[in-house]
Write a structure and sequence with these properties.
Number of strands: 11
Shape: globular
CATH superfamily: Domain of unknown function DUF4159
Largest sheet: 7 strands, mixed
Low-confidence stretches: 1-11, 13-27
Strand content: 15-25%
CATH topology: Rossmann fold
Oligomer: single chain
Radius of gyration: 17 Å
Order of helices and strands: HHEEEEHEEEHEHEEEHH
Number of helices: 7
């Protein structure tokens, strides 16, 4: 079932003025940019829905297709409908103000990639890392960020931060399970057995950030949640859409609007 746009717009209803807050009218076209990376170990690839997936391409490109359409409907941002992918070492990475990574639990990066990401962030770029659950997957990402930003440590982005209120109001960080793990009678966390051990606690979603010396938010990691699955799976049933896709879109709209206006 594919829900028509007017249903989504009703479910995401907010005042028109709030949805347009601080969004310039002269923005150039926004490209949704997925980072392609290598993964290591026996879990570098996984079989799902009849094909073999690399970790970097989890939810790609359908999540970006759907989100680009909804971002254009819910804000005045002009979005390219065809997403692009880039390596961190690509020479034109700086042309894209926000880059997105998914499923980082087994990611492996070269020294050149760490250096390239550091330069990108120092020049004003923004990284959103999403869809990693538990302690081991986060630790893998944190080790990489220690190489990218030596001496810089993450801290939780509090719910009072403007990124949670730029367009839509959020009272908590939403936990979005992958569609195949979402059940009306269950918790919103995913099972530990599908994630890198030791999983540790999976119960609470959070947004974790890296800030520069001036307090600018440069990197967010949405931990214990799979925001992009809410975009990708919007047409996989009304229950999932209403309970999870709407929250994913609200957060995604806020992140993109915040980045492009700060």
């Amino acid at each position: 079932m594919h829900l028509p746009s007017f249903v989504l717009l009703a479910l995401l209803a907010h005042t028109a003025s709030a949805m347009e807050v601080n969004v310039p009218t002269d923005l150039t076209l926004v490209n949704l940019t997925r980072v392609e990376y290598d993964s290591a170990g026996s879990e570098a690839y996984y079989w799902h829905e009849g094909r073999l997936w690399a970790r970097w391409e989890t939810d790609y490109p359908q999540a970006e297709h759907n989100f680009a359409k909804r971002l254009g409907e819910l804000t005045r941002l002009q979005t390219a409908r065809v997403p692009i992918k880039r390596r961190l070492t690509d020479s034109d990475l700086g042309d894209f103000p926000l880059i997105y990574m998914s499923d980082m639990g087994y990611a492996s990066f070269t020294p050149e990639e760490a250096e390239a990401l550091r330069a990108y962030l120092d020049n004003g770029g923004f990284l959103w890392a999403d869809d990693f659950w538990g302690d081991a997957e986060w630790a893998n990402f944190e080790r990489f960020m220690h190489r990218v930003l030596p001496g810089n440590h993450w801290r939780e982005v509090p719910i009072v931060h403007p990124i949670f209120h730029t367009v839509f109001e959020h009272e908590e960080m939403p936990q979005i399970p992958a569609e195949n793990f979402a059940r009306p009678w269950s918790t919103t966390s995913e099972p530990a057995w599908v994630h890198r051990p030791p999983a540790g606690s999976l119960e609470r979603a959070s947004m974790r950030g890296y800030f520069d010396e001036d307090g600018r938010l440069m990197v967010i990691g949405t931990h214990n949640t799979d925001v992009a699955d809410g975009w990708e799976r919007e047409a996989y049933g009304q229950w999932y859409f209403e309970h999870f896709s709407t929250k994913s879109y609200r957060l995604g709209v806020n992140v993109f609007t915040y980045v492009l206006t700060h």
